[in-house]
Amino acid sequence: MNLFKSFQQAFQEHKEKVALRVPEQNRQVSFAGLDTMSAQMANRLVSLEVKPGDRVAVQVDKSVEALALYLAVMRMGAIYLPLNTAYMPEELAYFVSNAEPRVVVSKGEQIEVFDSICQESGISFCCVTLESDGSGSLMDDLSSFSSSFETIERANDDIAAILYTSGTTGRPKGAMISHANLASNARTLSEVWGWKSDDVLLHALPIFHVHGLFVACNISFLNATEMVFLSKFDVQSVLTELPSCSVMMGVPTFYTRLLQEGDFTHELSARMRLFISGSAPLLEETFEAFEERTGHRILERYGMTETGMNTSNPLSGERLPGTVGLPLPGTEVRVMSESGKLLKPEEVGSLQVRGPNVFKGYWRMPEKTAADFTDDGYFITGDLGKIDSDGYVAIVGREKDLIISGGYNIYPKEVELVLNEMPGVIETAVFAYKHTDFGEGVAVAVVTIQDQAPTEDMIQAYCRDRLAAYKIPRRVIFLDDLPRNTMGKVQKNILRDKYGS
Asked: In CATH, which superfamily holds the domain spanning 403-499?
């Protein structure tokens, strides 16, 4: 059924309870207030001719209203399409042309960008605005719309959201995530993490991807849990709010930055019962330093855009540093060889998952969907992993050269396609280097035309105009030739070994 019905049941049981506390605005919103706002937004979207199954693309800053918009789209049976606020016009043009949304919700400063995309693509959509302070044309006369809305029935397999993830070919793929996918993951994580209605979640993540929206928010909605809703991760704000919270979700960067603060102490985190880390590998030294400072062992888990969460270290039991824990109940995880043989414990191979959390496939890419699933229904994650004799999963590498920087996924091919069009550039190879703060950073080896060679600053400026900021190479290496094997394939492992530390 429509996942919103599960949320609404919890909302109605805890009407007057605080759903969102926004310290930066000195504001609180109850579950009844959130329910009302989402109903009015759903009616507003109906007035814009949004129907069940239509896509609603959203590129806005984090806010209470943005979260209510997510709920509104879900309860009316439309498909929510969150877009990273760092995406540039060229990236946005692809998403719009591929998804063909009925409505785009953006910040006012982006209206001209989307108007231009509308004209150039020939795709007709309505564009309304929503600002971080809750103003914008979406909100105009919102109070005049009914505060009740009958939730539209959805089948378990109906799409609730499409999230774009970069591809090795350079073309982002829209992962179709169903109501059942989201429901199963939220319920399973609630159980394995011992979630309670009286928990208080410190929410400092963005809400345009799986971690901040589908993990953090969905679990909180399902359990009517209060969220301390910060617009972004600011270390001083986190230190101020931490004593009133019991759970925090973050990327490893959050924890490395907290450890840099002398005010972050065992006493400050005394009320906390759980710190959760994901979206990027957590270094063992971070895990150990955090435990020494606070007495807490960070719970690391593993998920993907296409699957939600797959594994988790246990709430009660050994949390092993360097691993992402055990498969979640109902989720099967296996490691396969290149020839399709099931590997033994500790053997490294292709990590594959199957379960109710795994997405339906890629939007309008049936061939890619078929290629990424095995005949017996396992999704091929593209990660290299191993499973020990106790069932703990460890991620040891990535088959597709994915870079994860500060929790964001970056595929080298996407950056290379941009840079290879730059005047003076012959060819490029993008790879990861170790970054103390973000886990991994983007590096690029560049071969240039000698008398037309761009500088490092010029390369970064060129990317800045065409790519989201987190995809811009921070390390540029100029080479006469890229290292290749006998078949002519670029050997990125050599680049990583030489320049990646």
From this structure: ANL, C-terminal domain (3.30.300.30)
